[in-house]
Structure formats: C-alpha cells, structure tokens
Amino acid sequence: xxxxxxxxxxxxxxxxxxxxxxxxxxxxxxxxxxxxxxxxxxxxxxxxxxxxxxxxxxxxxxxxxxxxxxxxxxxxxxxxxxxxxxxxxxxxxxxxxxxxxxxxxxxxxxxxxxxxxxxxxxxxxxxxxxxxxxxxxxxxxxxxxxxxxxxxxxxxxxxxxxxxxxxxxxxxxxxxxxxxxxxxxxxxxxxxxxxxxxxxxxxxxxxxxxxxxxxxxxxxxxxxxxxxxxxxxxxxxxxxxxxxxxxxxxxxxxxxxxxxxxxxxxxxxxxxxxxxxxxxxxxxxxxxxxxxxxxxxxxxxxxxxxxxxxxxxxxxxxxxxxxxxxxxxxxxxxxxxxxxxxxxxxxxxxxxxxxxxxxxxxxxxxxxxxxxxxxxxxxxxxxxxxxxxxxxxxxxxxxxxxxxxxxxxxxxxxxxxxxxxxxxxxxxxxxxxxxxxxxxxxxxxxxxxxxxxxxxxxxxxxxxxxxxxxxxxxxxxxxxxxxxxxxxxxxxxxxxxxxxxxxxxxxxxxxxxxxxxxxxxxxxxxxxxxxxxx
Length: 534
Description:
single chain; alpha+beta; five-stranded antiparallel sheet; 19 strands; 49% helix
C-alpha cells in the first residue's frame, strides 16, 4: 500500500514538474518569438538548423518563399554569392569565437537590408555542439545613419561657416569652414579657445547686443554684417544669419546659424566708393578749375590797370615834387588829401610802392591760380622743384597759416630739390597737410614749420617736404588708419576722411609716400617723400 502511494506521489510530482517545464518552455518560446525585428536561430556543426524563432521563420518565408524546419541546411536559403561569406562567419563561431558583425544583405527583390549579427558558440560540457545567431534588423537605423553621414558631409564641406552656440556665448558645434574663417586650426580648437563669443569675436560688443535683441524679438536675424576678430587678432567683415531654438519653458536653448567672410566684398565696395568719391572730387576740381580760371581772368583785367598805371603815377609824383617843394617854401606847409604836405611827402613813396607790390602779388596769385586750374593729361610729369611746390601751396593757404600760427616758419632748400612730378598734384597734397596742421594747433601759441628736405635715405635718393606742428597729435590707434578712405576724427566738423586718402594715392602714383610721426599732445610731423631726379 505504501509503495503504491509513493508511486502516485512521484507521478503527481512529475506531472507538476512537467506542467512547470511546459509553461517555462512556452514562456521561453513566447520570449524569443515576441521581438519581430530580432531573429534568433541555432545550427549544428553541419550547418543544419537546430531551432529558430518566429521572426526568423517569417523573414525567410517573406523574402525567399521558403518554410524552414529543424534539420534543414542553412545555406539552402542563401544566394550563392552570400554562401561563401556566411560560411566564413559560421566557421569562426563553430571554432569557439564569439563576436558581433554588421552584415549587408541583398534581398531577393533587390532591396538592401542591414543586420547586426551576434555569433555565440553553443557549448555543452566544454564541447562545441553548434552556434547561436542573433540577427537584429537595423536597416532603418542604418538608413538614418547614412542620411546623417550625408548631412554631416554637407555640414563639414559647406563653403559657409555653420555653427551652434549657447545663449551664454559658447560654441556647441562648428564646421571646418567656421574655424578657417576665424583663423583656428580646427573646429575643436575654435570651440576650446572661444569661451565668450561676444567678448572674444565681436569687434563691436554693441553688435552682439543688437543681434540678441533682434533674435529675442523675432527669433531670427538675417544678413547681419559686423566686424569680427580672428585668432591672430586681425579683423574681418562677416555676414551671418541665425535663429534661436526654444526649450519647453520658452528659454533659448541654443542659437544656430551660418557665417560668411565678406571682407573681400567690403574691400571692393570701399574701393568702388573711393573711386566714386575720387570721381566726384575730380569733377569738383575740374569745375573749380573752370571757375578759378574765369575768376582769375576777371581779376587780371582790372589788375592790369593797376600794374600799368601805378608806375606812371609814381613818375608823376616824382616830377611834381619840385613844384610842391617850391610852393611849400613860399606859402608854408599845406594840406593835400587831408594830410599835411610834409608828412605826405614822406609817406607817398611808401604808399605807391605798396600798391605796386600789391599789384604784383595779385598778378602772381592769378598766375598760380591759372597754373593750378590748368588740366594736365593723366600721368604727365615734369622736373619740379619742391621749393616751388611750397611757394605754390603757400599762395593759397598763407592767410590761414597766419591766422593759426602767426610765427610760422618756412625753410626752403638752398639748392633745387628736383623730382619728376605733376606740380599741381603735389601742391594739392601739401595744401591738405598744411590745412590739417592749421586745424590741429591750439588757438593760441600755434607753431607750424614747413621745410624742404633733400638727399635723404639710402644713396641720398629722396627729397620731400616736412610739415611739423605743435598741435593735439594723433592717437596711436588712429595713426595706422588715417590714410584709409573715409577714416576721420573730424566727422563732427564735416570731415569726409578722403583728404589724406587721396593725398596718399597721389604720392603712391608718383612713386612716393607719406610718413607720419605723432604722439597725443606733442604735435605731428608729416613728410611727403619722393624720389629725387638725378
């Protein structure tokens, strides 16, 4: 009786264990069959299927129209071109190697699939019985990755700088062109070096504030132009477009945009503007020349009466003196023109000589005006004495010099300082330098010295004119820009920034140059230097 009860107990235990095992097998089967994009199969040492999950079975049935079963040869489902590669992979795992491999398959319908396969040996008691393969379909992920690589290539090879930055001013990402434009060796160098975009890159910090103001209000900024500082400290002009991305709380998460180096374009625009201004200036000078020539002609006509008649008047006075002297002896002193004769006799020669000298000076000024207004063919040169250039310039600005620096000094060269030049163009340069000096000196105590120099430099081959003043001087930061077009420190007084630019261009056309030496509060010395004629 006891033996029967023990047998029944064991049978019930085995039944419970069998149900548990069946349930576990069912759960395990459900576990491996549930993922529809992960295939699982095992094979023996002869490449025959041992087991497989539903995903692998459906995959084979869909693509090759085959229904696989345990014992079936794995290679029966593969194209001939796939078999050799698959055999090599299976042989590796059947020798005990575990590894992960990314595979590319061409399906029967021609489309391409990507799978990440995990190969694991099937081992029992230290003996390899076969292999287990997990195949994860990553086609969609690979396509996205491939698309990402394409966009990354576009990002890296773009001809414009592309970036993403934080609102606080740090780069999150940048392409190679962005780094190149700003003078950095690589995007990594740019992102590591620039920790504050507004402070380190913007030449004008106010521009950074304007950019953020527009982005905060509109969310985007287009075609904004500003100057930026490169890694080596040089400045460039850039144009950029940017937009902001907000987080869930409406705060700026990051800013992204593109940047283009427009320095060459700005230089071209500036040169075009300079050419336009030069043409306007040249037109003004031509018009002024016509006007000056006409005025000079009108002045010369009445002055001719003076130059012709004053010598006659002086002779008449000389001839009348003995008559007037006799009359004085007989009748005593008398009045002529409101003056007593005795005083008039002393002053009249001086008055007459003064009028003669004044008439000659008017004649000289008219002559110089005619010379200055005469149109000369472009590039025409002649042997020119810089002493005469100084005299020509002084004829036009002597009154201004006397007003600004009553004790101004002029030192001419003892010998002619000859250069090949257009004298009127040099006079134009010197007039500009003298006017600048007059405007720089203090209201009281102004000092200006003009000196002709010769035999300067190597081989004593240079000559020039030096203008020195005791004015306010030039700030070192401004000194390197004063010959640039449109740069001026006298914008409020109507300065255009073209005087020194045009003067510098004239000197360059003559093979010469302008040299400046100045310290704030200590005056300025300017030299216009030209090769001497030998």
